[in-house]
Amino acid sequence: MNNLTIRELEEKYPFVISYFEENKLDIENHRDKTFKEYLDTFSEEDIENWAINKEKLILDLEAFIEQMKEFLGIKEDTKVKSLTILPGHDKSGNKEGFEKLTINKSEIISIVGPTGSGKSRLLADIEWTAQKDTPTGRSIFINDELPDKKWRFSSNNKLVAQLSQNMNFVMDLTVREFLELHAESRLVEDVKGTTEKIILAANNLAGEKFNLDTPVTSLSGGQSRALMIADTAILSSSPIVLIDEIENAGIDRKKALELLVSEDKIVLMATHDPILALMAHKRIIIKNGGIDKIIETSDEEKRLLIELEKMDNVIQGMRNKLRTGEQLKKEEI
Ligand SMILES: Nc1ncnc2c1ncn2[C@@H]1O[C@H](COP(=O)(O)OP(=O)(O)OP(=O)(O)O)[C@@H](O)[C@H]1O
Question: Is 293 in a helix, a strand, or coil?
């Protein structure tokens, strides 16, 4: 509410007019201002003469809107459609090199930069929905609005799902039990169908197949990562997925990204891998703790990516041959 102009407020909640009337607030020539900006136009004298309490008027308007919404049965669409990053500063205190970055549903953004430059810090700012309260001074907006504080503290309805390099399972469950527990906790109707869908997707990503009766503790690194990615894509309610390095994880990285994006997620991944960097629609370049620039993947780079993938297949092929004890020949390349 605090970011909307009075005109936008009236459009969204027509009943606010009666609040302004009841409180004898003449908003006639102030529709382009937010409610707070309007209240700031009162002089000290007005405030004293009419006993105006600005903070209380703002809080009361918020409460009025909430009550009316409840009374009228208005359910707002709380779906996350976009994530916006507003600049802070780098490690030396210089302003970052962009004005505003908005990322929409089904977009993939890669984050590149030297070791220690601040890639993980950017992911952490997003997870914390930073409001100039982290070392970078960045702000994060959701659907162009200040994010609700609930995102920070809710454990069930998280804004962000994190996929990190290590997936350590502590419970001694089979894959089926693990997925069923998760599906039940998410109140999924068709637990069996969803469980099977996830295992199918996970096996599509993992190099070596596994089944529902495999204990999660005996999955290989790549298999457990594939399982977590499929689980996050299909079961998690989190609209934003943050990935810190998925290279060398023994999974099909391209398919993993396609799966996440097909489920309408916003994906941000920190990476040192050129293939992953170019699979993104845009890449953020981090230097000395700050976003230096944002580059859109060009058509030339997309064509190069096809070549890179061919080279990657050659390397994968050699890796597999070496693993099985074969000797490599000149013709491999
Ligand atoms: N703008 C900033 N101001 C102050 N400190 C920062 C800033 N950005 C990052 N840092 C700090 O710098 C350190 C290194 O950052 P981070 O771990 O994010 O690097 P990284 O790029 O992820 O490195 P790697 O590639 O090795 O994983 C962290 O302690 C982080 O909090």
Answer: strand
Beta strands in 259-319 (DSSP E): 266-270, 282-287, 290-296
Q: Is the pLDDT of residue 230 over 70?
A: yes
Phi then psi dihedrals of residue 108, to 5 deg = -115, 130
Name which residue sits closest to atom 23 of ligand 1, judged by CA. Answer: 116
Which atom of ligand 1 lies at the shortest distance from residue 123's CA? 18
Reported as a single tens digit per residue, the pLDDT across 59-114 is: 999 889 888 887 777 666 567 889 999 999 999 999 999 999 999 988 999 999 99
Phi-psi category of 118—alpha, beta or left, where left has phi over 0 and alpha has psi -120 to 50?
A: left
Q: How far is the CA of 150 from the centre of ligand 1 (A)?
A: 26
CATH fold of the domain at 82-297 = Rossmann fold (3.40.50)
| CA–centroid distance, residue 287 to ligand 1 (Å) | 10
Mutate to test the pocket of ligand 1, among 117, 121, 138 (most ligand atoms within 8 A of CB): 121
Report which ligand 1 atom has the smallest distance to the Cα of 286.
21
Sort strands 290-296 and 282-287 into parallel, antiparallel or unpaired: antiparallel
Domain map (residue ranges) of the chain:
6-72, 82-297
* CA–CA separation, 44 and 65 (whole Å): 28
Give residue-wise pLDDT tens across range 145-180: 888 776 676 655 678 888 765 566 667 889 999 899
Name the one residue in this structure whose structure tokens are 């004898």: 24
Answering whether pTM is above 0.90, one says no
Assess contact for 127 and 93: CB atoms under 8 A. no
Among protein residues, the one whose CA lies closest to atom 25 of ligand 1: 115
Among the atoms of ligand 1, which is closest to the Cα of residue 88? 1
Q: Which residues line ligand 1 (CB under 6 A)?
A: 89-91, 113, 115-121, 135-136, 270, 289-290
Q: What is the DSSP string of 27-45?
A: -TT-TTSBHHHHHTTS-HH
Identify the pLDDT of residue 292: 96
The alpha carbon of 29 and the centre of ligand 1 are apart by a number of angstroms equal to 47
